[in-house]
Structures
1.
Amino acid sequence: MIVYPFITSMPQSNTGVLNVANTVTAQFATGPNAAAATGTVQLLMNSTPLGAPLPLSGNPAEASVANITFPQGNFTITANYSGDNNYNPVSTTVPSSWGVPLGWTANATSATINPGQTATFNVTLSNFNYSGTVPLMCVAGTSPNPQTPVTPPAGVQCNLSVSQANLAGNSQSVPVTVTVTTTTLSQLSPWPFTAPPVCALVLWGFRRKQWRRMALCVAAALAIGGITSCGGSGSTGPPPPPATTAVYTVFAQVTTGSSGVTDTSWYGVTLTVNINQ
């Protein structure tokens, strides 16, 4: 991450191990054949000094502070340069993030239901140190982010009780109710009815003298899908097999960065619904 005239370097966004020792380096960037900077630089994390001011050395001139534990979530590193005979004082601030700013917990991650029933999950989004509005979404599959979803299973739908969480930059929890609804087997794929030609011929024979019989034939054909009462099948093909397992992932979207340079991360919890047949 380069911000002139200082280059302030550090390990970038990390979603793995927390509480590890890190090194932050501030480097004074000068042009070709320019004199190396001298003086001191004060490094701060957020508004807290990382020790005493450090003397710059080398060409390009730099100073480092080691064994720094970054906080979980968003933070800033600031380098305040004292200036010397060749260069004016300058201050540079670099935004960064560390660890997993959000986390999910769930009362359960799987359920078994019958067709037509609903599975309900109570999940909680935990905020450690993030400020902003976080969109929430439920997406079929176990993809690492909702930009690569899979086709939802037939007759299954996932809904959330809230569509976003407004986080205030401190420890807090946001409860979310997840409902996965299923349809009954008879509702999964209705077979469209098309009255066959044989039915039309039978009704034509009754069109003048037996209107009542004609009406009864039409009603019967509509009632049973034209399969038996008027000869022939009205099906356009067999229905798809009903889903036996539905897997969904509930995502929280976190966007960090500034000045037009942003990074989007997705934090999810995967829920599985087994559907009896």
Note: The two ends are 55 Å apart (CA to CA).
2.
Amino acid sequence: MEIIKNLEKQINEEIKYYDSFEDGHYITCFSTKKGEIIQLIINNPEIDYFPLDILDLKSLEVLVLYVSLKEIPQDIFKKRKLKGLHFGHLNLEILNIEINKNTTLECFSINHSKLEKIPKSLENLRALKFLNLSNNKIDNLPDSLGNLKNLEHLHLQGNPLKKIPESITKLHSLKVLYITIEKLDSNSRDYVQKLLDMGVRVTKFKSRS
């Protein structure tokens, strides 16, 4: 399926927006005056692979994929202009990649998936301001989370979290935290309270089960 080539045929200098909706699945993209795709949204759970031609989109700034991926190609994190990367409904349990230190990502999401573990290399997302890991199967987080010094929004709700690292209290730019607290140990609850004392707006969720 040549998704990007088919899209590019629909785009010209006059058309800066393209939208296709069929059987509950949709593809949306925005382009520049030159016809370069800068934002791409694909929602189709029947797609179980990463369309590699996306890597050829040199001007891409925001990518949203709600597809049934089992892995994410490491090269997507090397795209210099990419600011937002969002995934949903993935079929992967471990994000087994090494994230490049030079990444310029400001927003990163993997939500409503089966993710159980996140890599230590997440700390290399130094420009990250928004991180959404909600509604997965994560029960603990790496200490390296505390190295995301620019992080402002952290969404962890809907995970069976038992422990969060003390390093979370070093996120001095953090403004908003969403978290499910029912299974957290006492130390982790103390860290949440410290964030509240620091002025972080914390929204506590109850487990759905």
Note: The CA atoms of residues 29 and 40 lie 4 Å apart.
